[in-house]
UniProtKB/TrEMBL annotation, chain A:
GO terms for molecular function: transmembrane transporter activity. The chain crosses the membrane at residues 20-40, 96-120, 127-148, 168-191, 225-246, 277-296. It is a multi-pass membrane protein. It comes from the Bacteria. PANTHER family: ABC TRANSPORTER PERMEASE PROTEIN YPHD-RELATED-RELATED, AUTOINDUCER 2 IMPORT SYSTEM PERMEASE PROTEIN LSRD. The complex is composed of two ATP-binding proteins (LsrA), two transmembrane proteins (LsrC and LsrD) and a solute-binding protein (LsrB). Keywords: Cell inner membrane, Cell membrane, Membrane, Transmembrane, Transmembrane helix, Transport. It comes from Palleronia marisminoris. This is Autoinducer 2 import system permease protein LsrD. It is found in: Cell membrane. InterPro entries: ABC_transp_permease. One of its GO terms (cellular component) is plasma membrane.
From TrEMBL, chain B:
One of its GO terms (molecular function) is transmembrane transporter activity. The keyword Transferase does not apply. Its main location: membrane. It is a multi-pass membrane protein. The chain crosses the membrane at residues 21-40, 46-64, 71-97, 103-126, 133-152, 172-192, 221-242, 262-292, 304-323. The lineage of its organism: Bacteria, Pseudomonadati, Pseudomonadota, Alphaproteobacteria, Rhodobacterales. It comes from Palleronia marisminoris. This is Ribose transport system permease protein RbsC.
UniProtKB/TrEMBL annotation, chain C:
Keywords: Signal. The lineage of its organism: Bacteria, Pseudomonadati, Pseudomonadota, Alphaproteobacteria, Rhodobacterales. Residues 1-20 form the signal peptide. Residues 71-322 form the Periplasmic binding protein domain. One of its GO terms (cellular component) is cell envelope. InterPro entries: Peripla_BP_I (IPR028082), SBP_2_dom (IPR025997). Belongs to the bacterial solute-binding protein 2 family. It comes from Palleronia marisminoris. This is D-ribose transporter subunit RbsB. It is found in: Cell envelope. Its main location: other.
Amino acid sequence: MSDRTETTHARTRRLPQINPVWLLLAALVAGIILMNPGFVEPTGYMNFLKRAAPLAILAAGQVYVITSGGFDLSVGSLITLVVVGSSMLTNNDPAATYWVIPLMLGMGLGVGVVNGLVVCFLRVPSLIATLGMMITLNGLAFLWSGGAPRGYLPDTYRFFGRELVRDVPLVGFIPVSVIVLFVVVGILAWLMHRTNLGRQVHAIGDNPVAARLAGVAVNRVRITAFMLSGLSAAIAGILLGGFAGVSTDVGSGYELQAITAAVLGGAQLLGGRGSVFAAFGGALALTAIFTLLNFLGLPQPVRQVVQGLILIAAVALAMHRRKQTGT
Amino acid sequence: MSGSEGAPPHKTKSGFRLERWAPLILLGGAFAIYVGVVLATGQAQYLTFDNLIAILGRSIALGITAIGQTFVILVASIDLSVASLISATAVLASVIMDGSPAMILPAVLAAVALGGLVGLTNGLVVTGLGVNPLIATLGMSLIIQGCLSAFVSNFAGSVPAEFQVFAYGRLGPFPLALLFLLALACLAWILLRFTKFGSDIYAVGGNEEAARFAGIKTRRIVVLSHVICSVCAVIAGLYLASRLRSGAPWIGADGVYDLESIAVVVIGGTVLAGGRGGIWGTMAGMLIFSLIDSVFNVAGVDSFAKQVLRGIIIVAAVAFYAARSKRIVA
Amino acid sequence: MKRILMATGAFAVSVVPLHAQNFDDPQEFAKQQEQLQAEPMGPEGQPWLQHIGGEMTETADLGLEAPATVCFSNAGVNNPWRVVGYTNMMQEVANHESIGDFVHVDAEGSDDKQIADINDLLAGGDCDVMIVSPNTTAALTPAVERACEDMPVIVFDRGVNTDCPVTFVHPIGGYGFGIQGAEFIVENVDEGSNVLMLRILPGVDVLETRYSAGRRILDEAGMNIVGAEFTDGDNAKTKSIVEDYLMRGDIDAVWMDAGATAVAAIEAFEDSGYEIPVFVGEDQQDFLRKWQDEDLTAIAPTYPTFQWRTAVIAAARVIEGEPVPAPEWVLPQPAITQDELADYVNPAMPPLHYAMCGCESMENYPDAWGGN
């Protein structure tokens, strides 16, 4: 990217633009390596990436909604619904995977469409609209399964979340979920930062009225953002179900973690600013925080306190920087 | 929370304003459904005075919390830390009291002080550091819950019988707590409707910049609203400690008081973007929630279907009056 | 430094009395250990009708007429254990002509809501008998006391701090559960072996007692407990925790305070390429199947869901004026061992079905429980 012919002026201006989330991530990873040198082995960092994958994908989708000026609280229960629904539909039949997975991805898109329609046309604030969706989907997951899912997830389904690609040069092996992670984040980042859709998402988040006047189909873009978030939740659900199997509360808490990750990556709540890569970094950083606290042997309560403090500090710092740079 | 610099708010001074009456219409509808379901299932015994009082008393903790939440939402902020604060104060109060009537006053004072501190911090982080209130209070919620869980993991301490009067006492046919809620709502209404502070709240929520130019100390108003919200959460925590005879670190989270109180406020017609709404709408919202619960119980709705319906009802209720608006919502 | 230590000590002392409930009570431990060995009274092969200790108490003087309305205030059906139990219960209700209406209200895991539910039932439910499955012991005590003033009350699963109910139905208890699993580990690994303890949540009475009993036995047998971690009952988290431990060293046995995430824990060993060690799970089908397929050395202590049947049976007996074991109806709490494994594995049942349901001979089995 940075050409050697670039003026020093441009370079100094670019320097402070390194997103602090990468510095935070680097510091955390250094801390983890210090605590546990095994982390530099492929088993160490691949396990880490595998664990971070669902959250990172979720955050990459969430950042679309946040940048366009909304929230999506429904992703956690959508994950649950995907896992529970898959176990109901596959019904122990390995061949069912090939239609169940596309169906689940379609369901993710569908939930996104409904969220988007409710927000755009019923004018329900997204916080409430997706809160309602969260409660509804959770109920649906229970209703569908009668409270206890009926089937196992076949190995074909679990391939994406559980299997490894072996005999890879350099690293030895790569979990399939890590490949999925890079592909999904790559596509979402390209959409956000290299296409018209991404510019429009930013525009309506920045100033919806101005965007509309400039000819942006505000509703269509917002609905698309919710659809991408729903799709990313469905993918995250497939990975989580694959990694750990069926349970009825797989997704709980993921909505707030996804928002936290996006915010750590510098996404601005209520819109106008957000980067898929930085949200990815935010998700890795959040996972790294949890890992580090685990290695330090700190109990759950301390983890909560630290998470809370970091969350506030990250946003306060971002606001401080924004004030200083005057943007 | 001011993502709606869209069209200016409705300025129609005269004529029928749906927004104003929507909560009442919704409440009437909910009540009609309740009566309908009771009659249709042939359970007329549910239409007694006692039962209506029981319905009114179902969601007192939620109602108290929602009154506070109304204040912060009116100034275009939000508070996600109320649930943890409820747990924290319930535990704190019951630990300090530890069964001794003499310790009731110190316990209440300590709880209120904690609430004041939390509200002040929330307010200052939001106004001073410019942190989005959703994140600021979410972070606060994690911090409170973490600190709390570090010290207690179960019901701790106990509330003396004298303090249980708060939740279980009756004045004639009316539960004391219900009258207290009514009094608190009246107080909040007077504060919002008849004082300078009240009109400032609406001004700040409506348009913070304009309010600042009009000479209102907007930051102070936001901070004060957060303090009021936290103190209301404290009162809800004290009520729950009295009702449960003790405090446990999960009671706030179990009742989902953070998200439910926001839903109640919004169903009551207060706009998330701030500046419009009021206490009676919130009270109507609370009653709607109680009625929905009771309808489900009377009709014997399966608890999973109940959740599905509840989610849809929340969205539909808000859509009921939001749908006509031309604004672009956050 | 000394001052800090003293301050911490003083603080700790001041905090200790807060924990009114003692989760490591040697007397209760000894009692439950004895109960595990006791021969239960009642019909053989029908553990939901059996009882350990307790006097048969007459209920004829309650003067109820059949068919009567039974109201059930349920803490929630928010996990598979409660789902299986609730299905048992509804099927059992159909067996009793003396039960007319059966009114069910669900508190969805909230103390506050359950108190309101009980008040609603008292205000307008026309209940003749009430069954309560309390969400928590302390919080529901006043509501249950109020209900006792109006009608006979039967409590099951968790108890209340009052003896006003007709009876309190429950299996032996958490200490028993912890003992069964830990003793199995002690019998199957050498002294000094590495044991990982996995727990769901802190603070839940029935889980804390399982842990304290398990820990006591493992410590006394000289096991090396490498860690005791909370999993939140989350499969993904469980698997991650076990993977982390495996990166640091060998594990010879895994003790769990509840089996919901046992299969995820086992998979961590499989996926990391380790032998599956000695395992303590629970009676969920997915674990039992894994145990059979992989030929594990394992045991499944149970917290039997058949107690939900017993609560209904107790209510029916109260209506009919028949005697019930009181003030506590202590049910047996069998553990599934290798010898009985084949009797309980049933591929037709859903993975999260609890096998110790005592429901195999009921009319709508297995359809009503989600089986094929």
